[in-house]
């Protein structure tokens, strides 16, 4: 049991070291589960960042004169288990993407909290370099979180509302310009085209997601 703040800091660093390693294992599954190219790229680039964050924590252990050792992070295990349940769902592509973003943002917020605490404790203890190194990872976690919000809000949530994948929306847009229901709908954006539909009226049961996991 930690008896002072320095020991508590070391415990927290062991916890987040283990959490980051769990994330390194989980992210490739999220890359496979994502259907939007942009989301897949976001997960891939965060995997690179996460590997670097593991290395950064090894540097922190060195600065603290401790051996790099993890301690099972049950909190992260729980969040990732929920994410793995999400991947088992048989959801429309865009709905799956929206749910994967939700899970990934839970991961980011957990990490933001953990790094924030460790930085405050390191500063209180006068461990300036430790705080600086941890601050680099904190900045990456915050940026990753904001990027996920931007992705959700710049199309994925809208596509999920319409019950369509972005690919299907593009196909619909092409089909729309050949529509017999009225004048050619040239210049109609994919988003506004799908926005005119009932939320679930256009779902084609033969196009449901499958075989992607
Ligand atoms: Fe991380």
Structural summary, described in words:
With 213 residues, this protein is mainly alpha-helical. It is built from seven helices and no strands. It starts with a helix and ends in an 18-residue tail after the last helix. The site of fe (ii) ion (FE2) has 6 residues, from helix 1 and helix 2.
Outline of the structure:
The protein is 73% helix and 0% strand. The protein is mostly helical and 213 residues long.
Largest sheet: none
Number-wise, the strands total 0
- CATH homologous superfamily heading of the largest domain: Ferritin, core subunit, four-helix bundle
- For the residues shown, what is the average pLDDT? 83
Supply Rg: 22 Å
Bound molecules: fe (ii) ion
**CATH architectural grouping of the largest domain:** Up-down Bundle
Question: Which geometry do the CA atoms define?
Answer: elongated
Describe the secondary structure blueprint for this structure.
Layout: H1 5-33, H2 37-63, H3 74-88, H4 93-124, H5 128-162, H6 166-177, H7 190-195
The protein binds fe (ii) ion.
Descriptive terms for the model:
213 residues, mainly alpha, Ferritin, 2 domains, 7 helices, 73% helix, elongated, disordered C terminus, binds fe (ii) ion
């Amino acid at each position: 049991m930690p008896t002072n703040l320095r020991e508590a800091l070391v415990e927290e660093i062991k916890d987040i070291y283990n959490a980051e390693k769990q994330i390194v294992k989980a992210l490739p599954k999220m890359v496979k589960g994502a259907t939007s190219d942009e989301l897949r790229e976001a997960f891939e680039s965060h995997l690179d960042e996460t590997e670097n964050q593991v290395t950064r924590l090894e540097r922190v252990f060195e600065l603290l004169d401790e051996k790099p050792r993890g301690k099972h992070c049950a909190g992260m295990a729980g969040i990732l288990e929920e994410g793995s349940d999400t991947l088992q769902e048989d959801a429309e592509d865009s709905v799956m993407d929206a749910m994967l973003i939700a899970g990934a943002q839970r991961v980011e917020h957990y990490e933001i909290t953990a790094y924030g605490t460790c930085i405050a404790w390191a500063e209180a203890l006068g461990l300036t370099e430790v705080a600086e190194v941890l601050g680099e990872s904190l900045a990456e976690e915050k940026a990753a979180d904001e990027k996920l919000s931007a992705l959700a809000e710049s199309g994925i949530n809208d596509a999920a509302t319409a019950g369509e994948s972005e690919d299907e929306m593009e196909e619909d847009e092409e089909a729309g310009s050949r529509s017999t229901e009225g004048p050619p709908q040239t210049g109609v954006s994919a988003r506004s085209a799908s926005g005119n539909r009932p939320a679930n009226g256009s779902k084609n049961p033969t196009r449901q997601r499958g075989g992607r996991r």
